[in-house]
Amino acid sequence: MSVLYYPDCEYRTAITSTSDIRPKNRNIAYRGHDIQVLSQRSTYEEVCYLLLFGTLPDAGELQDFSNNLAESRELPAESGEIFKQRSPKAHLMDVLQTAMAFLGIVDPEAKDNSKKALLRKAVRTIAKLPTVIAASYRISQRQEPISPMRQFGHARNFLYMLSGYGPDEDAVTALDAVFILYAERESGVSSLAARVAASSFTDYHSAITAEIGSLKRRQHGAANEEALRRLLEIKETGRAEEWIRLALAGKERIMGFGQGVHKQGDARARIMKKLSKRLADQMGDNGRHTLCEKIEEIMLREKGLRCNLDLYAGQILHMLGVPTGLCAPIFAAGRVAGWSAHIIAQIEKNRFISPPLRLSRP
Questions:
Q1: Tens digits of per-residue pLDDT, 121-163?
Q2: Number of compact structural domains in the chain
Q3: Residues spanned by the domain of 124
Q4: Are strands 28-30 and 33-34 parallel, antiparallel or unpaired?
Q5: Which residues make beta-bridge pairs with 6?
Q6: Which of 120, 260, 272, 318 could pair with 312 in a Cys bridge, judged by C-beta atoms 3.0 to 4.6 Å apart?
Q7: 28-30 and 9-14: which strand pairing?
Q8: Same domain for 184 and 236
Q9: How many alpha carbons fall within 13 Å on the CB side of residue 190?
Q10: pLDDT (mean) for 304-327
Q11: CATH number of the domain enclosing 68
């Protein structure tokens, strides 16, 4: 456990320095860079470089890094059979786990835990995960997968592989921001899973597989999917009050609200909200955005809970034409950069993580 010092607080403890929450304004920073600035001025590729290498890239470094990503997007030919064999009831997160394990089997550096090899594997995984998501989804819809385009950036390429159409700039900018906001959170469950798995000196792909497993239920990565399903169920702002009252009376968990370290508000949620409003205005359809605002108002009044980024994230992805079942996988596609940074840091300066064993008497 390291101690990190900041000018606006005496000290705080953290597992790593990949991200932190600034106490004064509750903003989040990646490697010391404010996430609000990153989401407005940087691309996901730049943020990946920052998380993996510790600094923002210059123009040459960014070009080389982007080229490496573009050259690594293609999947092994055999992976198509894995997607075709999935059960119709299988969640796509289960497919991601299987695909990641398969990529570990065929990776020529699978057993190499040197830092350089880990960085190369991280780049390949960041590049391939969107291809896995798009290809497996299209196959599940009885459509042919679409090969990635090397000349496209990360967000544009994913939207193209999903639909076959060249997305407009507003859609690309929005998805890029979503990827950035999801890229890292060191106190998340999946980040802890990364640390625990890596502390056993397992291989990179096994650690990523463990993280995906910790992500797929509604309490974590699938919260954006559950929040969106609720929005689609409520439909109209006028129904929000009664729906939430009945849900709370039935002790239901309202997804998209509450997060331990963000009690005074999640900076990422504020950014997502602005992004949702801008997209809704551009599309001329403010219905679901207004519904989100109404639910936010009711939950703050009734439970004192502020929304987290998942409430508006699902709404944004829906506006971008992303199927509801892909919300959690997109979380994974963004967070894989942060996961990789945690795995590399843990293996480089390893200390085995073992929780205390507590036995209860019969």
A1: 999 999 999 999 999 999 999 999 999 999 999 999 999 999 9
A2: 2
A3: 41-219+325-348
A4: antiparallel
A5: 9
A6: 272
A7: unpaired
A8: no
A9: 31
A10: 89
A11: 1.10.580.10
